[in-house]
Structure formats: structure tokens, C-alpha cells
Amino acid sequence: MQPLDRFSGHADLYAQYRIDYPADLYDYILQYVHNRQIAWDCATGNGQVAGALADLFTQVEATDMSEKQLAEAVKKPNIQYQLSMAEHTPFADHTFDLITVAQAIHWFDIQAFHQEVRRVAKPGAVLAEWGYGLAQIGPDLDPVLVDFYRNRIGPYWDPQRKHIDHAYESLPFSFADARRERFTASRFWPLERFLNYLRTWSAVRQYIHENEADPVTELGQQLQQDWGNGEREVRFPIFLRVGRV
């Protein structure tokens, strides 16, 4: 299977406008982690998760298939970044206490990735995979955003997007003590900040590539009157699954 890279072309936008994750998500994961020596953040992108793990673990290894994404990544002395596919890594057997994947497993050959996880994890290590679905911006504006998501740019999503819509329920996860949990990342953003976040979506980038026009600009005009000039709460529904290797 040829790996898909949908984010190198706008790595700078991704680094600026993608969300980080709430502390209660990490707290939930860490209750199952016996040792905090070394973690692997797979498909790290610009290092949102790796940066958080660096404050919790002695050493963090972080990989991504996008050199441009890694160039934008958070720098901390105990994070080592490497260019690597998820399914084939340079790590030794039985290395990691925790393995994390945020908003990325739907792009993987998941069977091959889980095989690699079993190889590089220490006995009893934890695998945590999570993602987040369509943002919620309030009952007055959610229908406008849903219409944009499904209809305006719907045809431009890769087929893998369905796994996000199904909260990874459709992807296998055959690990011991498997648990699922939900979280919410809440942000207060002005409209322009939210629109720039939308411009990081792979479907928006594909729309721009094919049509040489930015669909987010028109959406912004639709949202402007009700959003106003101030900040508005944007809620991201996060779904997590955790298991023991």
C-alpha cells in the first residue's frame, strides 16, 4: 500500500492552527502506564503530542513520514524526531512503555502498524490511539459547518475520513484491556483563527488544488454575522482507545 501524505504541502499552517489535546486525556492514558522511561509518538506531525509527552517521560521518540512536518515540530532536548513510516520503524524490539497515535491511524495499514507496535513495545506497554471529529461551534452555526463539511468539500475527502466519522469503531483494535473514552478540547477563537484551522483540512487543500479557489473564504462570509468580531467557543469531540500490548 502506498502511504498517503496529505500534510507536507501546508506544514506551516498545520503547525500554527491544529489543536493540542487536553490534560485529562493524558491523565487518563497515564493511569495505565507502569513506567515513564520512553514513549513513541507515531505520525507526530508537528509534535503536538511529542511535546506533551516530553514533560512526562524521560525520552520521547517521534516519527513522521513528512520531512516538512518534522521541520516545523516542537523542539525539546528529550525528543528525537526521525523520518519513518508507521509500519516499518528503526526501533529495537521491546523499547517503549507507551505508544501514541493522534489523528492519524486512519491513514495507516493498520494491521502492519499493530504488528510493528507488538514488536517495539515492552511487555505490558500501552498503546493509545485517538482522533477528533467535526468541531462544534454552536447550534446557530453548526448546520452551516455541517453543510460545508458534507456537501461543499465532502467529495474531496479521502475514503479514510469515514473512520474519523465513525470514531475509529470500524478499525480493528485487538489489544488486552481495551478501553474507550471521550474527551472535549475547548478553545475560544476569533473567526479568522477558526477559518485558518479549516484550511489545514486535507479536503480543503484538495479542493484548492483542483479548483484554484479557497472554499473557506465563502464559508467565512456565511459565518461572519453570527460569529461577530470577538471569540467564540469551538469544541472538538475527541475519541480515544487504549489497550495493553
Structure description:
With 245 residues, the protein is of the alpha/beta class. It has a single domain, classed as Rossmann fold (3-Layer(aba) Sandwich), CATH 3.40.50.150. It is 35% helix and 26% strand. The protein is built from ten helices and seven strands. A seven-stranded mixed sheet has the order 3-2-1-4-5-7-6. Helix 8 (191-198) runs antiparallel to helix 10 (215-227). The two termini are 25 Å apart.
Question: What is the assigned CATH homologous superfamily?
Answer: Vaccinia Virus protein VP39
The CATH class, by name, is: Alpha Beta
Tally of individual domains: 1
Please work out how many helical segments DSSP would assign: 10
Keywords:
10 helices, 245 residues, alpha/beta, Rossmann fold, 7 strands
SSE topology:
Blueprint (H helix, E strand, L loop, with lengths): L10 H7 L5 H8 L7 E5 L5 H7 L4 E6 L2 H5 L7 E5 L12 E7 L7 H11 E12 L9 H11 L8 H5 L10 E15 H8 L3 H10 L3 H13 L3 E14 L1
Parallel strand pairs: 1-2, 1-4, 2-3, 4-5
Antiparallel strand pairs: 5-7, 6-7
What would you say about this model in short?
This protein is an alpha/beta fold and 245 residues long. It has 10 helices and 7 strands.
